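TODO from last week: model Ester cyclase.
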Amino acid sequence: MKDARQVLRMALADLTRARGAAQMDAARALFSEDCQVDVAHPVNALTGVEAVVDGYFAPLSRAIHGAHRRDLMFLGGPNRRAVGGDWCASVTHVVGTFAEPLFGIPPSGKLVFLRVGEFWRVEEGRVTQARLIPDLVDLMRQAGRMPLPMELGHEMIWPAPATQDGLLPAGDHGAQTLDLVEAMLADLRAYDPETFSSKGQTGQNGYWAEDMFWYGPGGIGSTFTYEGFDRDHRVAFLTAFPDRVGGDHYCRIGDGDYAAVSGWPSMTMTFQGDYLGQKADGRALTLRVMDFYRCAGGQVAENWVLLDYVDLFRQMGRDLIAEAAAL
């Protein structure tokens, strides 16, 4: 799997830079003919190489001129969930000039860093399955067309890991890193409805480092320390979705000091409190989730989070892309 990470990383870089027939050739070399790729709304399910190119990679190339990848992290390992298989997980920015519309989002004509979370299943050297969340809400923000109020954390371009070692991590302790993340997630599920606190999260022996960073998606933003995480995300989210049940993951992998988990969807919940300008109406919702972690000294030091908020708000009856286009 260690060698497969680099092979896949280079193939994705070539695929993103390629155009026209060369891009289709690169995709045929990388993906199995009957591959299944799920992308955040409004793209959703794509089956087969041609659909993957026509539905996702070619639109990126047309919209973002000079598009190329700047990877923040790229890890791989055996999937601990029942789905099984060898997977790679990555966080990248697709960088270039936002010159033409992308999935209905009007261009800015300026430089953009489109963050994307990715999970790739690799079998016999080819991708057979993948799930991708491009952060389209943050792209809207960068284009000056933000349809959601920026009232929570700090909206920003995501940094690479503080240790600068997230690309093909070294070390054979990925299983231990994933053990830590899984224990944290198990205890995070239950919380005190008065204080919103969960068992074992903070303190000297807590799961989270005192100076932890939490990098959230467009609409939530990023924050520093667990206190900031509570203030700028957790309290607002749990107030809106107090019965949320998460952790329904198809993939969990660990690699060195890093771990990544994803569910499609991961969360089920009902909408019981107003959230980001939307009035609660009690409807049932689901949420697609990707989490990437860096751990150090037995604690979680950094967490990058991709959420498909275009799909979440679609379920609430709103079309964020249409709203952005009208601004």
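Done. The helical segments are 2-17, 20-30, 49-63, 136-142, 174-188, 225-240, 309-315, 320-326.
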